[in-house]
Design a protein that fits this description.
heterodimer, A: about 300 residues, mainly alpha, 12 helices, B: about 300 residues, six-stranded mixed beta sheet, three-stranded parallel beta sheet, 11 strands, about 30% helix, globular
Chain lengths: ~300, ~300
Amino acid sequence: MGTAPAPIPPVIPDLRRSREERRSKILGSFKAEGVRGVLIAILSTLVFLGVLIAIVINSPNWLLIKQQFFNSREFSNTFPYVLHGFFHNIEVFLMLEPLILVFALLLAVMRSLRGPIFFPIRALAIVYIDFFRGIPTILLVYLFGFGVPALQIPGLPHAGAFWGGVGLLLSYSAYVAEVYRAGIESVHASQTAAARSLGLTRAATLRFVIVPQAVRRVVPPLMNDFISLQKDTALLSIVGGQFGEAFNHGQISQQSDFNFTSLLGVALCFLVITVPMTRFTDHVLERQRRRRMAGAAL
Amino acid sequence: MSALAAVTILVFTACSKASSTASGPTATTAGETAAACAKSATFLTSGTITIGTSNPAYSPFFQGGTTSGSDWKLNDPTTGKGFEDAIAYEVAKRLGFSPGQVTWVPVKFDQSYAPGPLPFDLNIQQVSYKPVRAQAVDFSTGYYISNQALVAVKGSPITNAASIADLKQYKLGAPIGTTSYDFIANVIQPNGGPASYQSESDAVAAINGGQVDGLIVDLPTALYMADPYVQQVKNSVVAGQFTNPPGGTPPYWGMTLTKGSSLTPCVDLALAEMRRDGALQTITKTWLSDKTNVGTVPLIGP
């Protein structure tokens, strides 16, 4: 570091500089360590990977595992079907997500209503959320997918995948309602008091003051639930039928050829969507944090 | 009663071909018996033979029913009753094991071909041979070849179908990993695609819930599902069976073993003995042909 005296840190943090630092956190740590640090990092990564690969390749069953899990011919044979199925996953996700957002908000508002007169509505929302959040999603999908069509109610769709999707909708609405509720409760009580003192009705307070602030605050956790839902569309495979989503196609090839490689294709499809979504969520979180920090600095 | 006759004849003409094309080492010396071969083979637990099958063990391949306290659903294989059950005990006998030395383990289908040593000496659960599958496990020679059949609700429009072309407009389901599923996907090719199910029970639930118009299953399974005394599929009939798809016979059913198992050639010897002295034919007649309460099943042509 030399003999130069350390600069006195500014009282107000330089926002632009700290942003850049955060953006390149990994590189930043290299800078601190210098070239030697970079070399050590590269070397240790290579050694780590080398040991890992050596362990896997030298395992007694590696040839069989390679044949049954990492089979390039099997991959190219099955991937087109898997990819075709994956468009169905995206389709379901895009259909369900808006419905869940609206339904869950309704539930959260119902649960947040104050006053004895709203007790039945509040109780209903609580019972619903407890019930559907307490049952494993896979079970809901299965029970709805096979149970509802068996009721043979005239006029309702018979497709198991449709009802499996309803199961996903009900389960996720319960989760997302709780996320919304956390947001609603995080808005300070003084906001309600101020809005009411301005002459806004209870409903208008909720609509124009509380909910907009609440929703903005819970965008990152909501996006986590998006990612989760995107992955859980694979649960529809247990209902089967003509729907044929990605995991379903993967399993069909797996069972037909006694080879698990097709499932790697399924994993790849999901990663291509979920990893960018995760990075984007990080980005949104970071932007929110920066906004709050900026407010604090002023 | 005659529904299975054609199939049965087919099995025994096709098996000679099967034994020559099947994979696996044939390191047996001429004239060696299955019992002698088994003496030098290794078993999971010496002194017993461990045999795997699915749980639930489906009829008519297992038919003993189950007792309270048993871990087996539908049928307990230790009873020795049912087509595959009888074959398993007969093979075990020829390998030198008494019925008391047979241990059954429940094996999920996808567990039966996981890489590495498998939790059984021998697995029997209607697994059809495919060359690609033989890269993962050893197959014995065939003990059965089944036609595919259509199960549907009595009087529903699909029961009038006379050809594969007639079937394209309907929703047809089958459990995945079966010849039946491949038959829908590759031969019938319905307009809306095949409906896949994770298990036979799910497929039955689907047709009972009106999700599909018909199920394609192996003929013996179809005869069981639609049996007037069983009616696993409610109010059902076997609407037809299919002639072999163009390009050859349907795949045979073999027992599966860990890849490279020293027992594989011994099982092949046992099956060859059973074919030679008529035991296989007798078991097939006893547990499949004689058991069906469904009359002649019409053929659905191409």
